[in-house]
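To the team - 5-O-phosphono-beta-D-ribofuranosylamine complex, inputs and output below.
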Amino acid sequence: MPADVGLGIVVGGRGRGSNMAAIIRACQEGVVNAEVRAVVAPKADIPAVERAHELGVPVRIVSGNDAHGLVAALADVDWVCLAGYLRLLPAEVLANHVGRVINIHPALLPKFGGQGMYGHHVHEAVIAAGEPVSGCTVHYVTEAYDEGATILQKTTAVLPDDTAESLAKRVLALEHTAYVEALVKLIDG
Ligand code: GRF
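Output:
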């Protein structure tokens, strides 16, 4: 029987889709009591779209700045999960899903967030600042970059010989469990 709660996952143009896949699998395995009804991507020729097809989830191709298109693509979902969408989400989408749009960031917010803080930029900044600990943050999405309330964080030590790549790899593994745990917490209460 399909779950009552519907999720939409919005990915970005780089579209690797590893968080997306972790969420879809957790829903399909019944770990998260929800159904992923749509993956929304800006173009078809990205790995995330291929992976969504393999996992049997409908894909809707919508440009990341097409507010009406995004609203329509997410019309039948309860929760919206951003996973690699690097823009500010149009206000219309937030208004349609008040308090139900979440994102994951590969650092411990409020540090190392904001415009331009994505991918290797984040991990390079963490290492350059000499931070002993990094991690990831699942947070609510607002009209500003990375400023919504934190839902859950997971941490990992920054090792003396870490590069941005090695730190990114450890943080990404944490992201997958963090996103799933956050959804369990939000949906099951
Ligand atoms: C992740 O590092 C996430 O924190 C950030 O974008 C990246 C998406 O990676 N928001 P993936 O496409 O889920 O593998």
